[in-house]
Design goal:
This protein is of the alpha+beta class. The protein has 4 helices and 8 strands, in the order E-H-E-H-E-E-H-E-H-E-E-E. About 30% of the residues lie in helices and about 30% in strands.
């Protein structure tokens, strides 16, 4: 199956078609969907609320037409899954990237870095040049709201979220390829450790 999305996004940047992440278990997903609902009802936030709850490993990129989601899946299945890089991760309440993104904090662990690096290497091997490795240190997070948070409300929103005292362990037991379909991100393929 070849990627048929040739649309261009705004500006001079090609439309992003894929990203790679880790889906979370249903109980945590439901809790964080409730948080998204609160942000929507209290502040009108909607940006990316349709995207499945996840931790991003490889940020959105445009997969060139000569490669497919299947190519990425085969590379991850062959290069990453056999390494047994699954582990137990921990969420420790909420934080924010400035006034732009409210997220559940994923505790930093070198196991995240090892998994991200292995997945990135597999993606680049399957589709050379499709993306570049982020030079910043890996900061695992689970976005609740981003981009459309009104100015001046982050402190209050963060206080409400942190009153939940969210502290949860979850299994990092999958690598999921997300695809943009009809303008929305969907989980196209999940590969299980």
């Amino acid at each position: 199956m070849k990627n048929k999305n040739n649309n261009r996004g705004g500006g001079n940047f090609p439309q992003q078609t894929h990203f790679i992440g880790v889906l979370l278990p249903e109980d945590i997903t439901l809790t964080l969907e409730d948080c998204r609902r609160y942000m929507r009802e209290a502040y009108g936030c909607k940006s990316d609320h349709a995207t499945p709850i996840h931790v991003t490993l490889v940020p959105p990129f445009r997969l060139p037409d000569e490669y497919s989601t299947g190519d990425l899946a085969r590379a991850i299945e062959n290069e990453v899954i056999p390494k047994g890089l699954g582990f137990t991760a921990h969420i420790n309440n909420f934080d924010a990237f400035g006034d732009r993104t409210l997220f559940a904090k994923v505790v930093t662990d070198e196991k995240w870095v090892a998994l991200r690096d292995a997945v990135f290497s597999a993606v680049i091997k399957a589709a050379p040049g499709c993306t570049k490795k982020d030079g910043r240190p890996f900061q695992g997070h689970i976005s609740v709201s981003n981009r459309d948070i009104p100015t001046g409300v982050m402190t209050g929103a963060l206080q409400v979220m942190n009153e939940l005292n969210l502290a949860e362990d979850f299994p990092v037991d999958n690598v999921t390829i997300f695809e943009r379909q009809n303008g929305k991100w969907v989980s196209a393929v999940s590969l299980i450790f």
